[in-house]
Specification:
The protein is an alpha+beta fold. The protein contains nine helices and 24 strands. The protein has three domains: 150 residues, Immunoglobulin-like (Sandwich); 38 residues; 193 residues, no CATH class. Helix 6 runs antiparallel to helix 8. The longest helix has 24 residues.
Length: 436
């Protein structure tokens, strides 16, 4: 072989969000350094990480940079390209399959037996073809061929390459592994010769991440740059989401379903904050990731502020625009209708104490007021016609308007009728806790 591939750089312009990958890091301790792929260093997809904003790249040409090394000094220039390794073709209609939640709107608790069978059957069918689509077509398409020249050092230096058939917009939220077979030829009439196959992991976000995440500056001490440790979860939980509200709904559902196995409402420890700290205005995102991976983290107990921080911070990593905000008046407390807290099998008052809430915190849109939507992963409310009594039909408050007294929205389903006027939004408490 006369040509070797030395490096590939996705984030080649730290100030551009249209033609270049985003500034990211793996976690609070490790920056994703550039070039992301290096010869004799990067072997697996997770050795070469990059993230793109779908909104910002939709009408732009996506560019990468690559460097090559010649082993034959007589070669002055070559043509280079990268194609997808041969794989089975994907049927064209797979891209247009609607998500099952669009065909069977939530909540699923109202489904008849046959509706549930049809939903589960279609969901399995949909997931199979989506997995096939991700596996068999590169989300970044292919690298357009172009000629490069070598310097006296036998290196080409970093050369810009345009990508074609980029599929970021058609995949929506996703995490995909990209394989490229790099090839070269000396003359345009020659056959293409293989150099090697590289593998990369690509995260597709709806738009630029919102606070507490930041897009710059690109430096090792900026721990607010987007973490791929977070995207590993959010891009899977919200896979295929076409909108921020849809992505936030799926993230809320995924966090609530961590009850029993990972988290539990912290009644045994007095429902104190374990992963968030309101006084310091911080959110221990690193400990959450540790817990999700099976480590101890800060323990299994969480409260409403922890859940609000998780939902908003995780959803905002994909470009959503959620806040953490509170309801209530601190004094007096307000009673609730029967609820089912995260990780609990039983319906009743908060922790069974009968004391009500001094406040309750959720992820919230907009101004965090009555007209805005809430995303509450910490509990389920009663979805029946009469939320104060049995039968209790579990309903996760996700993209549900907070509402006024008597609207039948979140306030009415959550707060007891006698205390609904106490359960008022507190938009002045709106915040986005800093990452630690």
């Amino acid at each position: 072989m006369s040509i070797l591939l030395s490096a590939i750089q996705f984030n080649h312009d730290v100030h551009s969000k249209t033609s270049s990958a985003l500034n990211i890091r793996k976690n609070a301790d490790e920056l994703v350094a550039t070039p992301e792929w290096r010869r004799n260093v990067s072997y697996r997809p997770n050795d070469s990480l990059a993230a793109y904003s779908i909104e910002d790249t939709r009408d732009s040409s996506v560019i990468i940079k690559a460097e090559f090394l010649r082993l034959d000094a007589s070669i002055s220039s070559v043509q280079i390209r990268a194609v997808q390794p041969p794989k089975p073709l994907v049927p064209w209609w797979v891209r247009y399959l609607p998500h099952p939640d669009l065909l069977w709107p939530q909540p699923r608790y109202y489904y008849s037996y046959y509706d549930l069978i049809n939903y589960n059957t279609y969901k399995s069918y949909y997931q199979f073809w989506q997995a096939w689509l991700v596996t068999n077509s590169n989300v970044l398409g292919e690298v357009k061929p172009r000629s490069i020249a070598f310097l006296n050092s036998n290196k080409s230096g970093m050369q810009s390459f345009e990508l074609r058939d980029v599929r970021l917009s058609s995949r929506y939220v996703s995490v995909s592994d990209v394989d490229w077979l790099w090839q070269y030829r000396i003359h345009s009439t020659d056959s293409w010769r293989n150099i090697e196959t590289t593998r990369h992991r690509i995260y597709s976000l709806l738009s630029l991440p919102k606070e507490p995440w930041k897009t710059g500056p690109y430096s090792s001490d900026n721990t607010a740059l987007l973490w791929t440790d977070v995207l590993d979860y959010t891009c899977q939980w919200a896979s295929g989401s076409m909108s921020c509200l849809g992505a936030a709904q799926r993230i809320t559902r995924a966090i609530n379903e961590l009850g029993f196995s990972i988290f539990e409402y912290g009644c045994p420890v007095g429902s104190v904050e374990m992963y968030s700290n309101t006084l310091l205005n911080i959110f221990d995102c690193s400990a959450v990731i540790e817990r999700l991976r099976g480590d101890i983290g800060n323990g299994r107990y969480i409260n409403c502020s922890d859940c609000a921080s998780m939902v908003s911070t995780f959803a905002n990593s994909l470009g959503c625009d959620l806040w953490q905000s509170r309801m209530g008046k601190y004094v007096p407390t307000f009673a609730t209708n029967p609820i089912r807290a995260i990780g609990s099998k039983f319906w009743g008052s908060p922790c069974g104490w009968g004391l009500g809430f001094t406040f309750h915190e959720v992820a919230w849109t907009g101004d965090c007021d009555s007209d805005n939507e809430v995303f509450d992963a910490s509990l389920e409310v009663n979805g029946s016609a009469a939320p104060t009594m049995a039968p209790h039909i579990p309903l996760l408050p996700s993209n549900m308007r907070f509402g006024l007294n008597g609207d039948g929205q979140y306030r009415d389903r959550f707060a007891a009728p006698v205390d609904r006027l106490i359960c008022e939004p507190m938009p002045w408490e709106r915040r986005r806790r800093r990452l630690v």
